[in-house]
Write a structure and sequence with these properties.
Layout lengths: L16 H9 L5 H14 L4 E7 L4 E6 L6 H9 L27 E6 L10 E6 L13 E5 L13 E6 L3 H8 L2 H15 L1 H7 L2 E8 L2 E7 L7 E9 L2 E9 L9 E5 L3 E4 L4 H11 L4 E7 L15 H50 L65 E3 L5 E5 L11 E3 L9 E4 L3 H9 L1 H18 L4 H24 L3
Parallel strand pairs: 1-7, 11-13, 15-17
Antiparallel strand pairs: 1-2, 2-6, 3-4, 3-6, 4-5, 7-8, 9-10, 10-13, 11-12, 14-15, 16-17
Helix pairs in contact: 2-5, 7-8, 8-10, 9-10, 9-11, 10-11
Length: 527
């Protein structure tokens, strides 16, 4: 059957200019994103100083900067090209909306500016419109007029651009209003997290001011300086390297900051990558690691707070997983082991000091409970023992990061990563009563709770099996149960050494087989 060709007709697409502009502006849905965009434009304009003032009572935002400013011709060009990339070089704007970012959050917007370097310098001009009219205007017109009467004074005397945003929607300020005293710091953190490399390289001084109920708070936005020992590891991919610049510390923080630094231009929290975060949260969310992950590939999402899910992202995700499996998980395991060793040492120290006094008074302890010299934690005879050896941060790469070509290795005291030594948990009283923690082994078995050291440097030491599940269960119940467990072990050994050898052996066998399991079962079982 013969078919006739279809008669195709064309329907031209129509765009509502007001709604289009609102849609673009809604990619900056929070006041934090608006402040970021305004300051990003100030940086790209070559500003050396920028100031943002947010009044939570008046719902008003003002911003000043001494960047290059703009002429009326430049502003007309920007208006004509909204929705198109306007920036070149290393500037990171994508939509040409620039300082118009606040329009979805306010009822009135104006900008006063002039070209900073023009000779002779023209007067300022004002550029304004009412965002609330956008939804009803198919054609959007921006009003502008010369302002020969306008000038800056005081701390803003050198400014070339002033942005005034009023009638901000209360919902956009709700989070900041909950704690006005911390709002300036929150905004400053949002700015420094977004483009730390730009702020550092340009040297711009950014100040954030928040006003509320007759009070004001002002902070300077400075790029985050992470505490801890710096480690840098490169993970290669087919699209380029992923560089992990991480700072390791034993001072756990509640909200660790791990920033994705994309091409040195835009940064955002690693937690924003929901597709990857679940696989890497245990390491990067542990609180012992902060820093930056730098990459030159992948594509930013339109809101610049995450990466687009594409083939390049898969390479980055695989690099994250490889890093965590190769370096992160072993490192975190070591940190947790060290923290446990410190807890065990601290609790055992309290126990041996208290039991020594309770069991032996002011007299000498039995010779069989005296450990040889050299056990960590021993103090001078007759004096209080030194506290347990303080842990240092283990390196991500055992032995320290690889040396670069031509680099000489410095002494350990100059290289914190080389100073790391794993310390076995232990405690020692002033008169020599010693508690040591050891893993079970083939020589002594694996199921014992406690035993007396009989040879070598462990002779006379009360040794507690740190791999026994009863000890793990007591630790999980909390410090009180943990201390009761260690006390029971130390006391059993301290009592047994005062018995005849044959009786002591029977006592310890009965304690291990009957008393200890029942006691610890009652101690640690859930109520």
């Amino acid at each position: 059957m013969k078919t006739e060709p279809l008669n195709w007709q064309l329907a031209p697409a129509g765009f509502h200019a007001g709604n289009t502009l609102l849609h673009l502006a809604q990619t900056y849905p929070t006041i934090e994103k608006v402040v970021q965009e305004i300051l990003q434009n100030a940086i790209d304009a070559g500003a050396t100083q920028a100031h943002v003032s947010l009044d939570l009572t008046e719902c008003r935002l003002r911003a000043y900067d001494n960047g290059s400013g703009a002429s009326k011709e430049q502003m007309r060009e920007r208006v004509l090209n909204i929705g198109k990339p306007m920036k070149g070089g290393d500037k990171i704007g994508e939509k040409g909306i620039g300082n118009l970012a606040p329009v979805s959050l306010c009822t009135r917007y104006r900008m006063i500016t002039r070209p900073r370097d023009a000779k002779p310098r023209p007067p300022f001009f004002e550029f304004r419109f009412d965002p609330q009219d956008l939804e009803t205007q198919a054609t959007v017109n921006f009003a502008y007029a010369d302002r020969p009467d306008f000038s800056f004074s005081g701390r803003f005397a050198e400014s070339s651009t002033f942005i005034d945003v009023s009638g901000i929607k209360p919902a956009a300020l709700q989070r900041l209003r909950k704690s006005p005293s911390k709002a300036a710091e929150a905004l400053a953190s949002a700015v420094t997290d977004a483009f730390p490399a730009k702020i550092k390289s340009t040297g711009i001084r950014i100040t954030i001011e928040v006003k509320a109920a007759g009070q004001d708070w002002e902070v300077e936005a400075k790029p985050v300086e992470f505490p801890g020992i710096r480690n840098e590891i490169h993970i290669p991919t087919d699209l380029g390297e992923v560089v992990f610049e991480l700072y390791l510390t034993l001072n756990q923080v509640q909200k660790p900051r791990i920033l994705i630094d994309h091409q040195g231009k835009q940064a955002f929290p690693l937690q924003n990558l929901e597709a990857s975060w679940g696989d890497i949260e245990e390491f990067f969310g542990s609180g012992f690691i902060q820093g930056r992950i730098r990459l030159e590939f992948c594509t930013l999402a339109p809101d610049r707070t995450r990466l687009q899910m594409d083939d390049a992202y898969v390479h980055f995700h695989n690099a994250l997983i490889k890093f965590v499996e190769t370096y992160g998980t072993p490192w975190l395991r070591q940190v947790n082991e060290d923290r446990r060793a410190e807890r065990l040492s601290k609790i055992a120290q309290e126990v041996v000091e208290r039991l020594e006094k309770g069991l032996f008074g002011d007299g000498e302890i039995p010779e069989s409970l005296r450990c040889p010299a050299g056990i960590p934690g021993k103090g001078p005879e007759g004096k209080a023992p030194r506290p347990p050896v303080r842990r240092v941060v283990p390196p991500l790469v055992p032995g320290g990061p690889p040396r670069q070509k031509g680099q000489t290795r410095r002494k350990g005291k100059d290289r914190p990563d080389l100073a790391y030594r794993r310390v076995q948990p232990s405690a020692r009283s002033a008169r020599g009563m010693t508690a040591l923690f050891r893993e079970g082994d083939d020589a002594h078995g694996y199921k014992w709770h406690a035993r007396l050291g009989t040879e070598g440097p462990e002779k006379g030491g009360i040794i507690i099996n740190m791999s026994h599940p009863d000890l793990t269960a007591a630790e999980q119940r909390g410090p009180l149960y943990h201390k009761l467990y260690v006390t029971s072990c130390v006391m059993a050994i301290a009592v047994s050494v005062q018995m005849e050898p044959g009786v002591a052996e029977q006592f310890m066998r009965g304690w291990e087989e009957y008393v200890a399991p029942q006691t610890f079962n009652l101690m640690v079982r859930p109520f």
